[in-house]
Amino acid sequence: MREGLQKYFQLSPFFVDSTSMTDLDWEKLQDKIDKLPARLADLLVDDATSDFIEMLTPKYPQLSARGADIARIIRDVVIADIYIGDMPAQISSKFGVDQNTALEIARTIVSQLFAPVIDDIKKIQLQKFGRLLGSGAAQSSTPRPIPGADLPESGGNIIDLRNQK
């Protein structure tokens, strides 16, 4: 039981950095999570998310001992600290994998883990990153597209994240 609980805390997007964060950083994170729709907050603490990360990491040798880093990326996308379209670049740089592998990992996360909550993620992402394109007045009227925006409710098989910056 203790080993399972320890693994949960290591792979949980909510708890991954809880022991190393300062009180102020923890409060800032908690404030961001408190503002999320309940389904997204639940995704961060759900043991199914930790199980997903535990299932994902052995498939890629570069990830095998770095599930906590995947948990951080997932958390940062959900709380909109990272743009969802930048996930492949984040994965590539953190794990030293090529772009195709990073894209495959990002697609797996979006299509399997994020599929039930993709609409909530899209809303959060648009609120934070919707004004990145263009300049001046055009910024407010040109939302940045979100990869996977065309995913049906049941999920999808392919999401093109390549040209997202």
Overview of the molecule:
The protein is mainly alpha-helical and 165 residues long. The chain has one domain (2-141). It is 56% helix and 0% strand. The protein has helices at 2-11, 23-34, 38-45, 47-56, 67-78, 87-95, 99-113, 118-129, 137-141. The termini are far apart. The model is unreliable at 131-146 and 148-157 (pLDDT under 50).
Topology:
Layout lengths: L1 H10 L11 H12 L3 H8 L1 H10 L10 H12 L8 H9 L3 H15 L4 H12 L7 H5 L24
Total individual domains: 1
Mean pLDDT: 79
Order of helices and strands: HHHHHHHHH
- Number of E-type strands: 0
Q: Low-confidence segments, ≥5 residues, pLDDT <50?
A: 131-146, 148-157
The largest sheet, given as strand count, sense and whether it forms a barrel, is: none
Write down the Rg.
16 Å
Structural class: mainly alpha
Gross geometry? globular
Count of alpha and pi helical runs? 9
N→C terminal distance? 43 Å
Give the strand content: under 5%
The helix fraction, in percent, is: 55-70%
